[in-house]
Every structure is written in structure tokens, then in C-alpha cells.
């Protein structure tokens, strides 16, 4: 799951076993702080990239068996050792955040998938390692779910991203449907925009469908958490369709009644 998904999808919630809440929170704080380096404030690009390099230096200290210099990375070192977490997944996240600083457009879907592979999928993979369930098939299911969630988040925040110069829609597909950056700039949810977004939603829904078996494979509270995440992604897709893809004026979010419905959809479960 991409970092921004945490406003819509539960992480380190009461549904997770108590033993896993702290490591999940540490992963979240790592990703959140690194993401802020790339996005927040008015720092020049050189400073943003230097801050991300500082995180890489700390990861390299962990790899070399040295003591990290910051409390955050001492925590990261602790969970890496305890759960045998692959350090490359942390590096992948940093590479994606660095890319956000310098790359603002994606020529085609393959380029966007490569970004999601590093910006979203590592979080799901890290969670599977924490759960002791990082089989090749489970990792593949997780990648589909995480990529879909990342794409859904892009569509929720398409105008917000445009305000900082980014478009996370494939440029060739925009051209195919007759959509330009002005649609986003002007909040223009016309027929061309709706057709483009309808295609995007169908593709994301198929990704969620492919990844859905993971919610049944994982058991107990972890399985319920995963089923809720999947239900949340699908519900946002339905909300996008319900507003006729006018996320400019009616950005879809999950509210209390949505969680009640999703919980019902995620049963049966056991504790």
C-alpha cells in the first residue's frame, strides 16, 4: 500500500495482533517521513534528494552491521533483524520518493507500473514478511492489491497532484481518449474524461480481483485486515463511478457507514 493510502485503509489498527502493531508503525513512520521529504514544504529538489540520501546512508549502516545514528533507524534495524525484512524493499521506497522529486509524467502504463512496484508494493511485501506469509504466490497477490490501491489514490488526488506538477495517468492513454492536462487544471469531467477514468477503474478492479485470494489465505485478524483493505479499495472504485468520475468536486472518501458495510462484507472472520 502506498503511504497516502493510510488515510483510507487501516494500518496498525486494533485488528492487527498486538505483537505486530509496533513494527507496522515503524514501517509507516519510515515511509511517511521519506514521502514528506519528497512532497512537503518548499525545499529545493537538491535538498529533498539529499534528505532521502540520508535515509539511504542509514540503511547502509544497517546492512553493514553498524549502529544507525537516528532513533527511527535504530527501530528499523530492530525489526529488520527480528523479522528478517529485506532491506531492498526500504531502498525501493526511497527510490520511488526520489523519482517523485524529478519525474512528473508517465509515458505509458508500464512506466506507471514500475513506479508502483517501488512506491506501493514494498509496503505490502514488508507486511507479508512480518506475518510470516511471504510466499511467491502471496507476494504476487499483494502486488496486485497494492498497485491497485496506489492507482486509486492517484485518481482521488488527481487535482492535488496536478497542483504540484504531477500527473499519474499514462500520457498515451490520455491522448487516446482525448484528455489533456487542462481537464485536470479546469476540473473538466466531460465525456472524454469519464471514458478514460472508466477504463482506469476497470483495470484497477481487475487487479483487486486478482489479488483478492490473499484475504482468504491470511487467517485471523490479519486476514480480516486484508479483506477490509480489499473491500475499501473496491468501495472507492464504486464511489468514483457514483460521482461520474468528477473527483474534482466530489473526492470520494470512506466514512463511518462505509466501514460498517465493509466489515459486513469482510465476514466471516475469526479471532
Concise account of the structure shown:
This protein is an all-alpha fold and 271 residues long.
What does this structure look like?
- This protein has 271 residues and is mainly alpha-helical.
- The chain has a single domain, classed as Orthogonal Bundle (Farnesyl Diphosphate Synthase).
- It is built from 14 helices and no strands.
- Helix 1 packs antiparallel against helix 6 (121-131) and helix 13 (220-242) packs across helix 14.
- The longest helix has 23 residues, at 220-242.
- The two termini are 24 Å apart.
Key phrases:
271 residues; mainly alpha; Farnesyl Diphosphate Synthase; 70% helix; single chain; disordered N terminus
SSE order and pairing:
Elements: H1 18-39, H2 45-63, H3 71-83, H4 87-102, H5 109-119, H6 121-131, H7 136-156, H8 158-163, H9 171-177, H10 181-185, H11 191-211, H12 214-217, H13 220-242, H14 256-266
Helix pairs in contact: 1-3, 1-4, 1-6, 2-4, 4-5, 4-6, 5-7, 6-7, 7-11, 7-13, 11-13, 13-14
**In this structure, how is the largest beta sheet organized?**
none
Structure class: mainly alpha
Oligomerization state: single chain
- Measure the end-to-end span: 24 Å
Radius of gyration: 19 Å
CATH superfamily: Farnesyl Diphosphate Synthase
Low confidence ranges: 1-12
- Mean pLDDT comes to 90
Q: Which descriptor suits the 3D outline?
A: globular
Count up the helices.
14
CATH architecture: Orthogonal Bundle
CATH topology: Farnesyl Diphosphate Synthase
